[in-house]
Amino acid sequence: MSQVLHLTAEEAMRQKPVKGIAAFCLAFLLVWCSQAHAADTLRIAVQKTGTFNWELAVIKDHGLDRQAGLDLQVTQLGSTEAGKVAIMGGSADIIISDWLWVSRERSLGGKLKFFPYSSTLGAVMVPPHSSVNALADLKGKKLAVAGGPLDKSWLLLQALARRSSIDLESQATILYGAPPLLAQQALQGQSDATLNFWNFCVNLELHGFRRLIGIDDVEKSLGAAGPVAMIGYVFDESFADQHRDVLRRFFALTRQAQDILAHSDADWQKLAPLIGISDPKALALYRKRYLEGTEKRKVAAEEADARKLYLVLAQLGGAKLVGPAAELDGGTFYKDVPEN
Description:
This protein is α/β, with parallel strands linked by helices. It has helices at residues 9-14, 20-38, 52-62, 64-67, 80-89, 99-107, 152-162, 168-171, 179-187, 198-206, 215-221, 237-242, 244-263, 265-275, 280-292, 299-322, and strands at 40-47, 70-77, 94-98, 112-118, 123-126, 142-146, 173-177, 193-196, 210-214, 231-236. The strands form 2 sheets. A 5-stranded mixed β-sheet has the order 2-1-3-10-4. A 5-stranded mixed β-sheet has the order 7-6-8-5-9. 37% of the residues are buried.
């Protein structure tokens, strides 16, 4: 068998002892083995409700992984925290997380890297006929906040409000909770405003809620030059050193997937069941918000804005949020990728 496997598929077909179906099967086996051997394995751990699953579905459907010579082994997780455990424990090569956590881990001795993925963020949503038209109008109101006291969007919102002498934490009633619960309570009128993740904001928009302010606008007001990709691909520094070409091909195919989603109505129709919606209007709004976050900037520009926002977050969140580092760790961003 070992001698036969060194034959090419064409040579195998010419072997006289092997005929018909047997020759075809052997040729197919040789080609399959060759392709399987050529593919580089990449273990990806992602939250099962995350938008990267949409891109993975497109990648698989169009065979982009095979074309790139990659074997993507995907593990679905229940939370972002599970992803952090996976990457730190060595059971995943890539996860989706934020540059703030990567910088914190580096300040504590970890050697992780971050490469931008999406700048799509949440917003403060208010009911259709609400009298709340500015941050100052939140004084004395019930403001629901997805996550907890150290949620990054919440800290940035507080920082912006403080510039206008508004202390939301003390001047409004803050209700912390899980994103889906707070979205449901908002629809039931149990809060005056809701700061939630972007996909839950889309659902509120579909029910007539309006955006008081998006976190992307908050970032710009705090000094960012453009939309900041808070979340991205996270991987170990040693893995990156040993697999530069694998990462290059992976990032290239993710850009292909995003380009397909930017132009293909048919692919969005296929994604509708995965997203859990059937209404064309809802699908169009999900598509719009998703694509807003795929606009790419130079890594240097992303890093410059991350440094500005890091200082804001460190001031409010302290060591509990950022660890011992006063500034963004200089090695946080991965730059060994050709940029368009």
